[in-house]
Amino acid sequence: MVSVIGRALLAVTDRSAVRSLFTDTGPGRGLATRFVAGETLDDAEAVTRELNAMGFRVSLDHLGEHVTDVGQAVGARDDYLACLDRIAADGLDANISVKLTQLGLGMDDALAEASLDALAARAAAVGTSVTVDMEESRHTEATIGVYERVQRARGNVGIAVQAYLRRTRDDLDRIVPLGGHVRLCKGAYAEPERIAYQGRDEVDASFDRLATMLMGAEGVRPAIASHDEARIAHARSLAAGRNGYHEFQMLYGVRPGLQQELLDAGLRLRIYVPYGSAWYPYLTRRMAERPANLWFFVRAVTSRS
Ligand SMILES: Cc1cc2nc3c(=O)[nH]c(=O)nc-3n(C[C@H](O)[C@H](O)[C@H](O)COP(=O)(O)OP(=O)(O)OC[C@H]3O[C@@H](n4cnc5c(N)ncnc54)[C@H](O)[C@@H]3O)c2cc1C
Predict the structure, then answer these.
(1) pLDDT of res. 290
(2) According to the model, what pLDDT value does residue 101 have?
(3) Which of these, 25, 156, 288, 301, is most buried using a 10 Å CB contact count?
(4) Do 7 and 47 have their domain in common?
(5) Is the pTM of this model over 0.90?
(6) Mutational test site, ligand 1, from 246, 254, 294, max ligand atoms within 8 Å of CB
(7) Are residues 270 and 303 in the same domain?
(8) 218 alpha carbon to ligand 1 midpoint, in Å?
């Protein structure tokens, strides 16, 4: 869910001069380290080990999206295959989260689907799973279509759904019967009113309705992905009546105190850990969600001058 300030921020950060202010300066890179584990698989492994030792599960996101050629798409698939092999070799309690546009969706949809299938097969071989992130609304239908086919074939794939999209309630009628894990989040992109709730209250109400649906559904594995205490409390109130598996999820670097609190209360909590050199679009979404994050950057820049 993106506020008016957040929308403006997303528009400004898209400009290349602003981009290089973040990617080419110490303070910009410093801000990134709060939300990103590092640029390499070794960095991601170190953070995952630390989180696992504390009792958190992890979902590893090798950053990247909207590739523009086949070589990049195949490279992204291969990076994820290496990540799965590392999860297996080191016995990490982790799965992977993947953006389909990183695997070629929008450029070569068949390639993206074949790559997701290859990742799901390797994940199954090493005893873990794959979650498909949800991106901008122009990719929603294709993402769900690819998900449906690969989940039917493999059985270890999950998908993220966005509470701000008006269509999500109907999408769950297609997704829930497939029995995968379903990550419910508010949604991180700027979407038009025609298709997406705009107000905080509307998005929150939609989130709670969808959480109620998911937590009441048989055979599906809900993942409540939010740092909003009221949304978490609502989902927790539904957990008492639930038989099957469910978990909570939060982003690396966001509300670590609350993360620890939920863990201490005995909840299953998975931390979404991004890594890789393509961290800029991810960072701009974290800033748009909470423009106050920019303050860390501004303070660091001004204290240097
Ligand atoms: C595990 C996980 C996976 C996700 N996957 C997707 C996805 O596939 N597709 C998608 O569109 N979105 C995804 N998101 C992002 C999500 O849609 C929201 O944009 C984001 O989680 C903020 O919403 P919130 O539910 O935390 O509630 P908010 O109301 O935005 O935040 C609640 C409180 O959390 C804190 N907070 C939230 N965000 C930040 C931040 N960036 N920095 C500092 N504090 C913050 C603040 O204290 C805020 O008051 C994911 C989120 C999580 C947790």
Answers:
(1) 78
(2) 96
(3) 288
(4) no
(5) yes
(6) 254
(7) no
(8) 26
For residue 25, the model assigns a pLDDT of 67
Pocket residue to mutate for ligand 1, from 105, 162, 251, most atoms within 8 A of Cβ: 251
Same domain, 14 and 65: no
Pair (76, 23) in one structural domain: no
Total domain count for the chain?
Answer: 2
pLDDT of residue 244: 84
Q: Are residues 188 and 263 located together in one domain of the fold? A: yes
174 belongs to the catalytic site: no
Residue 52: which CATH number? 3.20.20.220
Task: Name the packing angle between helices 168-175 and 200-215 (round to 10°).
Answer: 20
130 by DSSP, 3-state: which? strand
If asked whether residues 221 and 292 sit together in one domain, one would say no
Same domain, 14 and 139: no
In which residue ranges of the chain is pLDDT below 50? Answer: 305
Residues 6+ apart with CB under 8 A from 26: 300, 304
The pLDDT, as a whole number, for residue 305 is 46
Number of Cα atoms under 13 Å in the Cβ half of residue 283: 30
- Please report the pLDDT score of residue 33 as a whole number: 80
Tokens 């498909």 found at:
132
Report which protein residue has its CA nearest ligand 1's atom 24. Answer: 226
**Beta partners for 157?**
130
What's the token pair of residue 63? 């950053």
Are residues 149 and 265 located together in one domain of the fold?
Answer: yes
Which residue in 133, 171, 204, 208 is the catalytic one?
A: 133
pLDDT at 103: 97
Q: Annotated catalytic, 133?
A: yes
Q: Residue 25: which domain range?
A: 1-36+286-305
